[in-house]
Structure formats: C-alpha cells, structure tokens
Design goal:
The chain has 504 residues and is of the alpha/beta class. It contains 15 helices and 20 strands. Helix content is 33%, strand content 20%. Strands 7, 8, 9, 10, 11, 14, 15, 16 and 18 form a nine-stranded mixed beta sheet that branches. It starts with a strand and ends in a 27-residue tail after the last helix. Its EC number is 3.4.11.1, 3.4.11.10. Presumably involved in the processing and regular turnover of intracellular proteins. Catalyzes the removal of unsubstituted N-terminal amino acids from various peptides.
C-alpha cells in the first residue's frame, strides 16, 4: 500500500478523484464555504450525524464532489485515539474490493500523532491475510492520500506511521502463518530477508552452535521436535559501533503443544501465535530499516517447536542453562522461559544499555489484563516509565506488574537451582521472576503479550503488537519522537499511575 501526505483544504478535497473520500470531522468543527463543509454542517444541524469519534454518515455521488463515495466521520477530540477509532469504524469501506484509491482528509487541525494513527488505522483496517489461501483476494486498497492543513508539520509523524505499517504488517504476516508455514527455519529466512535492508545484519545459529554455547535449557525445549531449532541474531546499526545497544529478545515458539505436559485440544491451533514475540522483534527491525534512527539495536530470537516425543524433555528432568544455573523442568508447557533464559544470558555479551524481552508467556497474564494492555515487568524504573509512555503514545499500551522477591519463593526446587514453575497464583509474575534470574544487573524489562499479540474468535489473527510500543520506545531513546503524547494528554510519567518500588 502506498501512502502520501498532502496539504489539502476541504475546498480542494471536493476535486479529489479517489474511489472513497473520508472526511474526519472533529468536535467544534468550523465549516468553511466549500461544499463538504456545508454538507457536514447541515447533517450536524439536522441531528442526522454527530462528531463523536466513530459516528459516520455515508454519502453517494454527491453532485459537488468528484469522489463517488464520501464518508463523513466524527473524529471526536481529534486525538490519535479518536482518529484511530473513527477510521477502524470505516473498515467495511476500506476493505471493499472496488476501493483502490482513498483519500482521508482532516477537516480540522491535524495533530501529528493523529496523522500517524490515521495511517496505521487504515492499514490495520484493510489488512488481508493471503499466504495460505488458494484463491487469495488481496487487499484492493493500493493508494491512500492523507490530506492535512499543513503537510510540513505532519511529515515526521507521517513517516513514523508509514514505517510502523511496514513493521506491524511484517509481524502480523509471520505470526498469522500456520506453524507448518512458519517453522524455525522459515522464521530464520524471514530474518535473513531483513538482513538485506539498510543498516541490518542477520546471523542464524543452528543446533550445533547452540549446543556449543551451552544453551542446555533452549536445547531441552527443542528436543521433542523434528524441526531443527534456530537462534536468530539481528543487528541494526544506526549509531557508532561503540554505543551500547538496546537488546530485544522475542519468544519464538513456532508451535506450543505443551510438550509432554500436553495442552487440551480446544483452541490449541492458537499456539501457532506463540512466536508473537519473535514476530514483533522482526517487525521492529523492519520499521528501523525505514526510519534509520541513530541507535544500535540487537534482536535475539530463540525459535523452536515445543512437541511431545520419545526424545522430548520430561517433567522432572534437570537441564543446565547457559548461565550455569540448573533448572528442574516441572512442567514442559512452561517452555517460553526456558528458551528466553538462555537468550537473555547470551544478550549480556553485547553490554546492552537495556534489554527488553517480548513473549506470549502466560495464560495468567491474559486473566490479569485481558486483551487491552500487555503486562510490563521491569527491574528498572526509568526503563519501565519509558516503556509505559511509549505504549500510551503508540496506542499499544502496557501496565506495570510487580516483581517483589517474595514472588520467587515458589520457584524453589529440591533437585536443581530452581524449578521452571511456581504455583498457579500470580503465574505471570512468577514467570517474570524466573526470567529475572538470568539478567544480572543489566536494566531489563519483560513484556508479557499473551493477551495482546493476537485476537481469538471470529476476528482470529495477529495484531502486530507490541511493534508500535517498541518502536516508539526506541525513537524516544534518541529523541526522534515526542516523549509526551499530546494526543492522550498523558505525561511521560503519569503521576496517577501506581509506581511500584524498585524491587530488583
Ligand atoms: N504459550 C503459553 C502461554 C499462553 C497460553 C499464551 C494461552 C496465550 C494463551 C505458555 O507457553 C504456557 O503454556 N504457559 C503456561 C505456564 C504454566 C505451565 C505455568 C500457562 O500459562 O498455562
Ligand atoms: Mn507452553
Ligand atoms: Zn508457549
């Protein structure tokens, strides 16, 4: 899909020849003397329509407008959130096969964040999965013009939105693919394709390399599968090599059966999404290649399947992680932490300024936070605040969870340095406490995206989260995006937010 940004007044929008013209009208809209203004004012006055976010009025073949279809959409207070809501409400029109070219015009001021949100919402609404359909109907929408009162003022935000579309779609695409079309090997080839982009290098380690590194925990998970594991290493270099990188680690379980502690059959297909963390890391690199910010980023993805088999790791087996710590595998379904812990140990070699792991880690996190906010666990308050602010600004929010040391008590084992599970209570927190044993004193955060990486039910599919959060975070680190979201009016460190004491 091709986006362009233009300075376009409502009076000029009447001459736009798109298949669909969407007019975003905010509260307190002041009509001009053009035909679209007159229409909007008339509809508002007669009570047939309102400017509340998402309220729309569809019109057809207006004599004074060149575009055949016009939709007036309420943009509420004009914030990124409202604009997103407004455009997602037009998903039907944006997905229609006859709409190949659309124009979206801001009838009032266009806040930069709202322009980025518009670009992303249009892409989100019109995305179609095609990879494994025999007669795919690809996305019809090919060209989108965003019309604003002042294109120069919105340029940077627009570019960020376009880059995020590329990143989010890359992540959605790979996460949506079924496990037989997204094996560890195929995931590694997707990463290698990113390695051809400017600023990006990719290295892929196989089972022999991983054994040599001593990653006994990662190896144990991969044992039950015929598909060989891959350990993917991505480097984005946007700053001098001497500058410490941010390391992102993505859980890449391409299918999670639970292993010998096998899962129930219902909805097990959704465990193809268990590489959502990995997909988001790939998506971030895709976006970085577009934006080229002055930062260094390393991406690490331990990728394998979790399968039951004669060779599979068994409950009670003790494995030795790369850190030297031994782990009693009490439940083979708690495999995510077993692959992540070795990747976190490996990460230390890059002397990172911060590391963030991203994982569809626990069902408990879905119970705690549902599908709206990802779970955020952090050993460092500054890092936590940055990620919280980035999530709010990106409309990809998270919520900080506690890490008190007492939560780790259940991880005690009689036969190893630790077990891989504690009790049922606080399951997302005890998982985070397990990971924390492998991070040393590097500032670390963990995002549990089990509830946010995909949607179930009729709308089943990957969301591409938290690519938006992570890219905003990385850009903020180099001052390339506002640290404060004007759109939500939330300060970077909202005083109303509970701020757990540092417990690392
Ligand atoms: N991939 C799952 C987590 C998951 C489950 C995400 C359901 C989304 C929906 C993870 O590997 C897992 O199985 N976790 C277990 C941990 C338990 C055995 C301590 C869980 O959450 O049940
Ligand atoms: Mn599992
Ligand atoms: Zn899993």
């Amino acid at each position: 899909m091709n986006f362009d940004l233009k300075t376009l007044a409502l009076s000029a929008a009447t001459a736009d020849r798109s298949d669909l013209l969407i007019v975003l009208v905010p509260e307190g809209f002041r009509p001009g003397s053009d035909a679209l203004s007159a229409l909007a004012a008339h509809a508002l006055k007669s009570g047939d329509w309102e400017t509340k976010a998402g309220k729309s009025l569809a019109l057809y073949q207006l004599p004074s407008v060149a575009a055949r279809r016009v939709v007036l959409v309420g943009a509420g207070n004009g914030s990124a959130r409202s604009v997103r809501q407004a455009l997602l409400g037009c998903a039907g029109a944006l997905k229609a096969p006859q709409i190949k070219k659309a124009a979206i015009v801001f009838a009032g001021a266009a806040q930069p964040d709202a322009v980025a949100a518009a670009v992303q919402a249009i892409a989100e609404a019109s995305y179609v999965y095609t990879a494994t359909k025999s007669k795919p109907e690809p996305r019809a929408l090919a060209r989108v013009t965003i019309g604003v009162p002042d294109a120069a003022a919105a340029k940077a935000a627009f570019a960020r939105g376009v880059a995020l579309v590329a990143g989010v779609e890359f992540a959605r695409e790979w996460a949506n693919r079924p496990a037989n079309h997204a094996t560890p090997t195929l995931l590694a080839s997707a990463a290698k394709s990113l390695g051809k982009l400017p600023g990006i290098q990719c290295k892929v380690h196989g089972p022999a390399d991983v054994a040599k590194l001593g990653m006994g925990s990662f190896l144990a998970v991969a044992r039950g599968s015929e598909e060989p594991l891959r350990f993917i290493e991505l480097h984005y270099t946007g700053a001098p090599k001497s500058q410490a990188p941010v390391v992102l680690v993505g859980k890449g379980i391409t299918f999670d059966t639970g292993g010998i502690s096998i899962k129930p059959a219902a909805e097990m297909d959704e465990m193809k999404f268990d590489m959502g963390g990995a997909a988001s890391v790939l998506g971030v690199f895709r976006a970085l290649a577009e934006l080229r910010p002055a930062i260094n980023v390393v991406g690490l993805i331990p990728a394998c399947e979790n399968m039951p088999d004669g060779r599979a790791v068994k409950p009670g087996d003790v494995v030795t992680s790369m850190s030297g710590q031994t782990i009693e595998v009490l439940n083979t379904d708690a495999e995510g932490r077993l692959v992540l812990c070795d990747a976190l140990t490996y990460a230390a070699r890059f002397k990172p300024r911060a590391m963030v792991d991203v994982a569809t880690l626990t069902g408990a996190c879905v119970i705690a936070l549902g599908g709206l906010r990802s779970g955020l666990f952090a050993s460092d308050d500054t890092l936590a605040d940055s990620l919280l602010a980035a999530g709010d600004a990106a409309l990809d929010p998270c919520w900080r969870m506690p890490l008190d040391d007492e939560y780790a008590e259940g991880l005690k084992s009689n036969f190893a340095d630790m077990g891989n599970v504690a009790g049922r209570a606080g399951g997302s927190i005890t998982a985070a406490k397990f990971l924390q044993r492998f991070v040393g004193d590097i500032p670390w955060a963990h995002l549990d995206i089990a509830g946010t990486a995909w949607k179930g039910g009729a709308a089943k599919g990957a969301t591409g989260r938290p690519v938006g959060l992570l890219v905003h975070y990385l850009l903020n680190e180099v001052g390339q995006a506002p640290a404060q979201s004007k759109a939500t009016g939330r300060a970077a460190a909202a005083p109303s937010r509970p701020r757990p004491a540092r417990v690392a």
